[in-house]
């Protein structure tokens, strides 16, 4: 049994079958890539896992519990963190504040009226956030205004915000989309490093095959809302069905 | 000091100094001088400065931190005043129970209004709060007359029970609000040379409460709660996916700011024990929005500054009339005098709204951070100027 079990998930948008009978099992402590042409339903699938969308039918079990019908913040509290296709950070806050908020959320739960003690006097949280920033080489940007950073740094910060919660499952939706080559390689190194340092399961949606083959242990190919194959990277490269799905796209 | 960092302590001390010395600061002109017109150090107005300061400080906790713009906060001001006057009628003229009931009642109403209004955000939230406030205004004016006194407002009477106090003074008057026997209207006027300074107990009572309210707001701003509220303003989506439920946080901010407004309403009634429905009118709700934006949304000191500025203009600029203008410009040749008076006239007296509107527009366009941002810019400009002077003076030495 995987940590995440998706069974028979369907999702329609009007007349469009975005997901058709999706079955997916992600094993604990693996990096599982989901690839597929544009419009294959990758983001839709991910949205069904985090409570942004509710599937029309099927079941999504995480760590033995159903996530269906739960709100995004409840699903996060179960141990799923998510990196968005375009980085979602608190642009009006400082870098360290961005990282402290997930720390508070992890410690205090979805709501706690904590209105008297100063943030600065929460030594444990400050330390935890600083340690995380050091891990992603951003400690020098500690007091910077998060919104004024480069896109690469915003992405890095968003990952730090997810990782500081020590999630059981980290979902990444095209984490290197729109990045320069150097930033992409940095991100690959960062994710590899994270993988070595801690027990974490990652599901990564990615267009860049270089990223996929550098990181993934399992790969699922999605086409027109349905998984075609699930294989190891070695076996996926020459797979006839994959070529078929990507016909016209020269990436594989 | 008091759990605040150095910078916040400085701000708190500055605000404390300003309020304590307000009777001097606001009365800089000798009584008989032509400029005495601009003196604002009389009890009535000083009370209004700090009471509206409290209103704006509380409003800023909601609007400044979460970005949710309520257009109905005057409702809580009204509830505070009505509650306080009822306490004066039924219990005693001591302001403490009045204030306590007012804060509780406005808090309860804020829970209900906030719970419903916060189901929406942005303009829809604003409209919902406005609708609630206008509904309450209309009710207070009509069907709720037995509770609110309707058009005439809620007033004290000689035959009120006041079970813990007295219905009437031995002289046969209605007693006045007091703090354990010390009357709010108690004042001493001290003449110093050509100047006159008035110290009023009611003012200092309100000022003390404002300082406590200000201090609490600083603590809230710096707390994890305040941080979460700022995160709500910045990116609610990210907050959701970070495991935080924004709803109870925004509701808490709404209720706290409603209670601040109720407190302000109770103090208004404590200074002048009557309450009318017009205190809930939408213009009153709009005024606190103006105060907060004018002073600086989301800054600590801005709302206090904005409240002071607007109340000063409302009371001082509005009292200047054409006779006064003529006396100021009497030294000019007649034709020129008339011309200048004619130019200035639309901006004074009843025209003070025009002046306020112009200042407001200038601030919003050129200083989106309000007057506080203006102050910061002036400070950094002076610092830079000081630096460049040093640099230039060093150059010859090299
Ligand atoms: N909210 C939505 N409403 C309507 N159609 C949608 C919505 N989200 C996605 N779709 C459609 O569903 C299909 C799958 O989209 P998506 O999951 O974003 O693909 P991918 O991420 O694999 O590129 C696309 O055809 C897209 O247009
Ligand atoms: Mg996508």
Number of beta-strand segments of chain B: 6
- Calculate the mean pLDDT score of chain B and round it: 92
Bound molecule kinds, no repeats: adenosine-5'-diphosphate, magnesium ion
Q: Which CATH architecture of the domain at 6-280 in chain B is right?
A: Orthogonal Bundle
Note the gap between the termini of chain A: 30 Å
Q: What's the overall geometry of chain A? A: globular
Which residue ranges of chain A are poorly predicted, with pLDDT under 50 across at least 5 consecutive positions?
A: none
Order of helices and strands of chain B: HHHHHHHEEEEEHHHHEHHHHHH
Tell me about this structure:
Chain A is of the alpha/beta class and 252 residues long. Chain A has helices at residues 42-49, 72-78, 95-108, 123-135, 151-163, 181-197, 209-215, 233-236, 240-245; strands at residues 4-13, 16-26, 31-35, 57-62, 65-66, 80-83, 169-173, 201-205, 218-223, 226-231. A six-stranded mixed sheet of chain A has the order 6-7-8-3-9-10, sandwiched between helices. Chain A has a four-stranded antiparallel sheet with strand order 2-1-4-5, with helices on one face. Chain B has a domain at 6-280: ABC transporter involved in vitamin B12 uptake, BtuC (Orthogonal Bundle), CATH 1.10.3470. In chain B, 65% of the residues lie in helices and 5% in strands. Chain B is built from 17 helices and six strands. Chain B has a two-stranded antiparallel ribbon with strand order 1-6. In chain B, a hairpin with a 2-residue loop joins β4 (187-192) and β5 (195-200). The site of adenosine-5'-diphosphate has 11 residues of chain A, from β2 and α1. Chain B: It is a multi-pass membrane protein. Chain B: Pfam families: BPD_transp_2 (PF02653). Chain B: This is Branched-chain amino acid ABC transporter permease. Chain B: Keywords: Cell membrane, Membrane, Transmembrane, Transmembrane helix. Chain B: It comes from Marivivens niveibacter.
Compose a concise summary of this entry:
Chain A has 252 residues and is of the alpha/beta class. Chain A contains 9 helices and 10 strands. Chain A folds into 2 domains: 1-79 and 167-252, P-loop containing nucleotide triphosphate hydrolases (Rossmann fold, 3-Layer(aba) Sandwich); 87-165, no CATH class.
